[in-house]
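Hello, quick one for you while I still have it in my head. A protein chain has come my way and I'm curious about its shape. Can you walk me through what the tokens say about the fold? No rush at all, and the record is pasted right below.
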Amino acid sequence: MAGGVDQNKPVTVHKVFPAGVAAKEGSIQEGDKVLSINGTALCGSSHWEVLRTLRRARTQGMGVVVLRRGEVTDPRKGGTVTDSRGGTQTEPANTGQRVCVRLEKHSRDLGFSLEGGVGSSLGDKPLTVQKLFLGGPVNQVSPGDEVLEIEGVSLVGLRRLEAWTLIRTLPSGPVDVMFGCSASAQVKTSRETKGQYLSANMAFSVGVMSAMYLCKGVSGAHLNPAVTLSFCSLGRVPWVKLLPYTLSQVLGAYLASGLVFLVYYDAIMDFSGGNLTVYGANETASIFATYPAAHLSLSSSILDQVVATAMLMLCILPLDDQKNSPAPDALIPPIVAVIVLGIGMSMSSNCGGAINPARDLGPRLLTLTAGWGTEVL
């Protein structure tokens, strides 16, 4: 399953497993909109609620799934198409189609963000709809639609930022937008955009090691409220230091992420097309804070972070334990860095390796105040 109100996309069948019951029954196809499962309506449900409803259906002897599917004729022969926008139109005798949609502009945007364009991170690509915003034109526009023209102005050959600037300069009111729908554009919306996890984890590890060498002789270089709390619980640090240490760690993370935002401001704006979003192919919030994968439930998210943080403390605490062959003081920073690297490489696919509340909360507050909005919370 894919979609949900938190992703601002309709709930659809993402994949039909070849050996599953749905594949054997034969009626359910990838891309079908799912309206309800066993009488539970999915309209207004978030993605994790949709998955919970699907899991509950596994325990029952029979599953009743209500779908909505468009009726499409062979495009090579021409004919009538009932599309996802709910309208009927004549299908041209080729593999694509052009649709002119009139949208209402009430703010700086038209209810959707863009990806692609000349000079994008994947090269020169067509400009396509990347994400529909909350309250956007979900019945008229679909993620993956190629945007050809806006108010008669061709977007072919433009950078994403140039197209975004054009949209912002349009007056409020009705705007005619020409879309080109194609299968290849739809595939683009599911591409991997998280970058290389290995390089990111190595950079974080070097940062941890450098910070520990920098302030180990001053405060012990906890860098993490979980570490400070553990040391206070074990009597190694007075409880009176817990609050000031934690606030200092969060403030440090906030200022550091602010510096990253300033250094990479132009790159972030170019990549996102001026739309600072939390979800979608061109989201940029995960540069700063950690976010759970779309398939993850709340309970699994909590378990992931508890286990990962417990593993961190299990490896750190013995390093200066006099009863357990402590490591040389000068080697503790690189050892901790390797521990952080190992946890990041083995336990970051669920929640992004969320083992440091300060490293997450500080940058999250930065994104809250820098333009991403309350969606980061």
Summary: Confidence is low (pLDDT under 50) at residues 70-95, 181-195. The first helix runs from residue 21 to 25.
